[in-house]
Amino acid sequence: MGASRSSDPNQDGSDEQQKRSEIYTYEAPWHIYAMNWSVRRDKKYRLAIASLLEQYPNRVEIVQLDDSNGEIRSDPNLSFEHPYPPTKTIFIPDKECQKPDLLATSSDFLRVWGISEDSSAVELKSVLNGNKNSDFCGPLTSFDWNEAEPKRIGTSSIDTTCTIWDIEREAVDTQLIAHDKEVYDIAWGGVGVFASVSADGSVRVFDLRDKEHSTIIYESSEPDTPLVRLGWNKQDPRYMATIIMDSAKVVVLDIRFPTLPVVELQRHQASVNAVAWAPHSSCHICTAGDDSQALIWDLSSMGQPVEGGLDPILAYTAGAEIEQLQWSSSQPDWVAIAFSTKLQILRPDLLRPLAAYRLVTLSAFKVLVLCIFALRSCRLVSFMHLHVFWSRGAVVKDFGSNCMHKCSKCSFELFSIPQIQLDHNLYKYIMKVC
Questions:
Q1: Where does the pLDDT of residue 137 fall: very low under 50, low under 70, confident under 90, or very high at 90 and above?
Q2: Segment holding 367, helix H or strand E
Q3: Cα→Cα distances 364→308, 314, 396, 429, Å
Q4: Rounded to whole angstroms, how far apart are CA atoms 88 and 106?
Q5: Of 194, 229, 354, 360, which one has the fewest beta carbons inside 10 Å?
């Protein structure tokens, strides 16, 4: 299997900026579920992906984008068999390359794999079982690697526990009965602080200095509604986001004000599966779900009343339900999504200056000019299905399929365009016009 990228053969291939303004796609021989970016400075554009097969043997591949030709390549030496489908995979959070190159995975046990210095092989380093009284343990639903203290990994399990591992000693530091039901996700918020979500519908925060107590930050409004994913804002640890099972809603929380969401993101049309905070901004978050949409939100106004609810500022439409989403912490211009058998890396330059793309009010005339310009442009580059949402004035929705332009003041429909694809320069021009 291989990779593909969109490009314009009429453009200068040496134009580095244009190379970056593309979508890179890799198709695996199996359905992709777990995925993670490497953060090492000497391993740019490297990801781990894992299969979701209903059988005991599964696969993990380490793939890498070759930015000289725009292909995502897999190396047979870095592909290995894995027992059961991995529920999560994470590279060691070691940007400065001071530690061995490690990859951790979770399924029946927590496993730590070592990648050789010349990237020629992957070796199983340790299999960590938190159940001391048995060779078996409750399946692990997720885990998180502590960035501030990389020897620590926290796991969550269906047996209601969270386990904190010291992977250097290959020993349990702490094991807590964290919830009343299955624990579905865990996230570190600092050296000794972590949070978890559960089938009991609660978000709980734990401080390892006081292991006897936890703080309930949020509980589902409907009893026994499971919370399945948790994302902690690394740029501003006051905020975290959680996903409700089978819900199109994402709940954003401020840990200073427990129980009440600071904002609810409700623009997905189907269940949300993944959430990722921007690694370079405290107020941007990306969500993805079964509606095949990855939405980027500006939360700088959260806490303030917004008529009709908060709208996303950007969106991308994938070819199928998006099951996994990762925002690269070492290269924040890049977002990766996984759907069906495909891994896609998105590097539109507009993802970088998100704060600059604030919601604006357009007149119907300017929307018309914008659309005519897009139609007449002869340099359109296959770039991405860009969706821009405005909440007031003339509304431009769904730059992609079945595009409809309408002035919300008079409800006059300008016209419909079946499909428009915009390159970065065109988008900058549009924003300048507007």
A1: confident
A2: helix 364-376
A3: 21, 21, 10, 17
A4: 6
A5: 360
